[in-house]
Amino acid sequence: MSEESKRVECSTHGNRYPAYVCQHLNLKTPVGFYEPFASDPSVIYSDDELNAWCNACDEVLTRVGEWNEESESFAKIKLVCDVCFFDMKELNTGSRKG
Predict the structure, then answer these.
(1) Strand, coil or helix: what is 53?
(2) 27-37: per-residue pLDDT in tens?
(3) E strands along 1-98, which residues?
(4) pTM of the predicted structure, to 2 decimals
(5) How many CA atoms lie within 13 A of 84 on its CB side?
(6) What's the N-to-C CA distance of the chain in angstroms?
């Protein structure tokens, strides 16, 4: 797969790298933020590495022990761009400026 095909068109940020978040993460209300590794907004993640989920999804994930049909059904993962991902991270970790 070429680098160009690993892009997503965001209505706010244009042609960006993809990221995946649970249905509950948003840009308005903090709901918690979990990710498999500590991501850094100064790094370009072009290999579908960025993903995150909220407190409620983490509770389900902890209860069932892994990502499976039940936890994935609850999370309903959605595609966002990398800039939206880091905006969500800032909001949910309490470090958003403004």
Answers:
(1) strand
(2) 999 999 999 99
(3) 8-10, 14-16, 18-21, 51-52, 78-81
(4) 0.88
(5) 25
(6) 38
